[in-house]
Amino acid sequence: MEQEKTLGRILQEIRQSKHITIAQMSDKFKVAAVHLNLIEVDKRLPSGELLEQIIKLFDLDGNTRDKLYLLLAKTKLQDKIPDAVLKKIDLKKDRMPDKFINRIKKDVPKKKTDRIKDAIEGIDILTKEEVMKLAGDLKQPVAEYLMLAGYIPDELLQLLGYKDFEKFLKSIAGFKDPVRIDKVISGLVSAIKGFTD
Questions:
Q1: Are the CB atoms for 97 and 148 separated by under 8 Å?
Q2: Which residues have CB under 8 Å from 131's CB, separation 6+?
């Protein structure tokens, strides 16, 4: 079984694929080359601001952006959040989640585009942008569609940048009851949906 790539390894592969050296990134971001190297070998984590600069420099798509932010959050919080919560952060997509497929089967009219047919059949994965457009076209809640599809709504990504939100997530680690953890997660999902509806 292939081991999941780390944040540092992914950032290194992206940088190398664009033929940019650590020294060039150091000059561009005004950050020590040693610091950038330590990030790539998973000895340090980038700040949210530095990660956003990297995303913009390499013009990364929304899916890659989400994955990088989720890996950053998961790495920062892995010792502080119960496994039950971490398992809900799905970073690997081989096909669209069953809940999403069932929902679009119900919501999409009989005439389906080839992309939607491929997603339903598990042949292809819709991008975050495609899911957002599909929800808009069908007049369905965008945040709900994104969550069913396994993507993180932009509002949640913004919350991840706030220190108070990180403190809140850390407080979940104190809960020993999985039912209570699920209730907190459901409440958080409802709150996010409230912001986006």
A1: yes
A2: 100, 145, 146, 149, 151
Give the integer Cα–Cα distance in Å for 154 and 159.
Answer: 9
- The rounded radius of gyration (Å) of the Cα atoms in the chain is 18
In this prediction, residue 1 carries a pLDDT of 37
Rounded Cα distance between 22 and 128, Å, is 30
pLDDT of residue 24: 93
Question: CB–CB of 53/60 below 8 Å?
Answer: no
Comparing CA positions, the residue from 10, 188, 15, 191 lying closest to residue 89 is: 188
CB-based contacts of 136, cutoff 8 Å, min separation 6: 142
| pLDDT beneath 70, residues of the chain | 1-4, 78-94, 153-166, 168-170, 173, 188-197
pTM (2 d.p.)? 0.46
Report the CATH fold assignment for 1-60.
Answer: 434 Repressor (Amino-terminal Domain) (1.10.260)
What is the number of residues in the chain?
197
* Phi, psi (rounded to 5 degrees) for 177: -90, 115
Q: d(Cα 190, Cα 143) in Å, to the nearest integer?
A: 10
Token pair in block for residue 14: 């992206």
| Sequence ranges of the domains in the chain | 1-60, 98-148
- Sign, CA dihedral 114-118-120-124, equals negative
Q: Give residue 3's Cα distance to chain centre.
A: 18
For 131, other C-beta atoms within 10 Å of its C-beta total: 24
